[in-house]
Inverse folding.
């Protein structure tokens, strides 16, 4: 009878050690966060506030005025494929964190986040593939509102 608690204890310790050594859960969470992409659109004369978050698996969440966040229809395979293509075309490391024209007013501001990088732009300056990515995400958002 005294042997049984020792065996259970050894099994428990062994499973904890194996779980700790793998620590894949933490790596997967940060890896998924790196591949998640989000866009927030705000400003303009009407004071727009809206956003879209797309998970690596294509799940979509919309953010509305006041910060209410709700699930929406997942990306279609075509939308998901285009998103992947557009994300790969952007050199996020080479982007400025801010590209806003100080001489204009009542423009929309777009906050794009991906892989630990954040870009705030009003699209007054041509940012090449970034503009295409923002347009695609904005289009996906509009289809779901």
């Amino acid at each position: 009878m005294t042997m049984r608690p020792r065996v259970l204890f050894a099994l428990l310790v062994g499973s904890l050690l194996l779980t700790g050594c793998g620590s894949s859960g933490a790596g997967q969470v940060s890896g998924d966060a790196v591949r998640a992409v989000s866009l927030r659109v705000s400003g303009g004369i009407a004071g727009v506030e809206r956003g879209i978050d797309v998970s690596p698996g294509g799940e979509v969440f919309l953010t509305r005025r006041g910060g209410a966040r709700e699930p929406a229809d997942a990306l279609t395979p075509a939308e998901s494929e285009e998103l992947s293509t557009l994300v790969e075309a952007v050199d996020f490391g080479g982007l400025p964190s801010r590209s806003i024209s100080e001489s204009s007013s009542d423009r929309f501001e777009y906050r794009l986040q991906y892989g630990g990088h954040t870009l705030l732009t009003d699209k007054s300056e041509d940012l090449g593939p970034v503009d295409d990515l923002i347009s695609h995400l904005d289009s996906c958002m509009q289809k779901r509102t």
About this structure: Helices lie at 3-22, 24-35, 77-89, 129-143. The chain has four helices and seven strands. The beta strands are 37-43, 48-54, 60-63, 69-72, 98-99, 108-114, 117-121.
